[in-house]
Structures are given as C-alpha cells and as structure tokens.
Amino acid sequence: MDDQVTGVARQGVGRVQDAVGGLTGDSATQIKGKLNQAAGGAQRAYGKLTDDVRDRLEGALDTVRGGMRERLDTVETYVKDKPLPAVAIAAAVGIVLGLLLRGRSRTVYLRDPR
C-alpha cells in the first residue's frame, strides 16, 4: 500500500512539475515532471502487484491452515475413539524413524586369532 500511495504522490508531483515547466518554458523542469510521472506510475503498479501477490499468498496460506486443522481434527477423533491402535501406530512409526535415523553401525568385529 505504501508503494501505491508514494507512486500516486510522485505522479502528482510530476504533473505539477510538467505544468510549471510548460508555463515557464523551462524544458528541464518539464522533463523532470514527465520522468516523475513515469516513475510514479511504475511505483504505483509495483505496489499494486506486491499487494495482489501478498493477498493471494495469504489466501493460499489460509486454505492450507484450514486443511491442516481438518486433518488434525480427524487424527484427534481417531485417537479418542481408538486409543490402542493409535498407540500401536505411533510406536511403529517411532521404531521405523529410529531405524532410519540411527545410521549405519561403525563397529568393526575382529576374530580372536586363537
């Protein structure tokens, strides 16, 4: 929103500079005015684009949060309704993760030469 407001303000300043330069015959002021108008328009468009992207991302994040809440509610309901199978599933997942994360054993076994 700040970029949009700043862009509109810069466009306004550019219009005033352009008009003053035209009335006084000062081409340098007129050129500065036209440049400020163009820069203000670009800044306003950039601000609008960033606001649109932010709004879309927030909408997508809200959708994901809603889906996660639904899934967590489903898991919570399952655990309340069937606590023993839920504990068994959690234990199995824990064992599998433990086996995957422990890495390979670095122990070297040597035979006794006797």
Automatic annotation (TrEMBL):
InterPro entries (alphabetical): CsbD, DUF883_C, YjbJ_sf, YqjD/ElaB
Superkingdom field: Bacteria
Pfam family, one: DUF883_C
Domain (CsbD-like) ranges: 3-55
Claim: DNA-binding is one of the keywords in the record: no
Annotated DUF883 domain residues: 76-101
Coiled coil: none
Gene Ontology MF, one: ribosome binding
Transmembrane segments: 84-101
Keywords, comma-separated and alphabetical: Membrane, Transmembrane, Transmembrane helix
Family: Belongs to the UPF0337 (CsbD) family.
Name of the protein: CsbD family protein
Organism per entry: Caulobacter radicis
Organism taxonomic ancestry: Bacteria, Pseudomonadati, Pseudomonadota, Alphaproteobacteria, Caulobacterales
